[in-house]
Amino acid sequence: MEKIVAAIVVCCSIIGLASAQLKVGFYNSSCSRAESLVREAVQQRFKTDRSISAALLRMHFHDCFVRGCDASILIHSETGDAEKDAFPNETVRGYDLIDTAKKAVEAACPSTVSCADIITLATRDAVALAGGPKYDVPTGRRDGLASDITEDRLANFRGSGKPDPTMDPGLAARLRKICGTGSDPAVFLDQGTAFVMDNQFYNQILLKRGILEIDQRLARDRATGPIVAGFAANGTAFQRSFAMAMVKLSKTGVLVGKAGEIRKNCRAFNPKRGLRV
Ligand SMILES: *[C@@H]1O[C@H](CO)[C@@H](O)[C@H](O)[C@H]1NC(C)=O
Ligand SMILES: *[C@@H]1O[C@H](CO)[C@@H](O)[C@H](O)[C@H]1NC(C)=O
Ligand SMILES: *[C@@H]1O[C@H](CO)[C@@H](O)[C@H](O)[C@H]1NC(C)=O
């Protein structure tokens, strides 16, 4: 999970004015159980699937970076041209957990809590369960009315994964073995504590154990090297920066007030107002 964590810490700064309308505890009076219902659903899932924390982080990040944090990533398209379809569906997962949380919240307070807020809250809770920071995150987001594969800048945005001379040779050999099996290979980008939200990623790239070349470069680049060294040396500093970056990320391009809608079903626009897809 550290790969996506590093991306969030490094690059979140695009925040619109609408985000000023988000409030910690937005649902205090309209749906006082909203946050606890989401948390219960996440806790339940985490008991049997610790990879859910990384999955939600990834979903939240990808949702926020296309059209803002508006749950457009959840829209299911019969024709295959929604934002969701730009990713192989095994890499952005957790849709069913969002459905479970949404169902619980709808039963308590119908048409009140947005899917965009549910993704944000569930990600926050899953990060804390994995040993990450506990932080307050503002809510009040509305769900978007469009989801389009062609806006997806991120589809061409992956690292190459090629072993290179800056990689620890032992690790390179092991990866060649895993990748030469013929089956669909998968390795953890964090070779140590893959299911724990910690600063190990930074220690590992200092030890030349980054899996992706682009990660490894973070440690060697003059601009990012000192940040990597600082986070590697001080886990508390990392956790604090991470929490602040997550709150910033969650404010990216949000819809508030009367914009957008509160979806009944996170995977579909509400009837009548549906535009595309
Ligand atoms: C909701 O309640 C919490 C805890 O009492 C408080 O910190 C927060 O400011 C409240 N938010 C709103 C919008 O009323
Ligand atoms: C992944 O996508 C394929 C093709 O759209 C679909 O048939 C399959 O059910 C999806 N799998 C999951 C787990 O959503
Ligand atoms: C680690 O970072 C925290 C938070 O920034 C800071 O308060 C603390 O003094 C740092 N510890 C060391 C040993 O530098």
TrEMBL record:
It catalyses: 2 a phenolic donor + H2O2 = 2 a phenolic radical donor + 2 H2O. Binds 2 calcium ions per subunit. CDD domains: secretory_peroxidase. Disulfide bonds join C31-C109, C64-C69, C115-C266. The keyword DNA-binding does not apply. The active site is at H62 (proton acceptor). Its EC number is 1.11.1.7. One of its GO terms (molecular function) is lactoperoxidase activity. The record marks R58 as: Transition state stabilizer. This is peroxidase. InterPro entries: Haem_peroxidase, Haem_peroxidase_sf, Peroxidase_pln, Peroxidases_AS, Secretory_peroxidase. It comes from Salvia splendens. It is an enzyme of class 1 (oxidoreductase). It comes from the Eukaryota. GO terms for biological process: hydrogen peroxide catabolic process; response to oxidative stress. Transmembrane segments: none annotated.
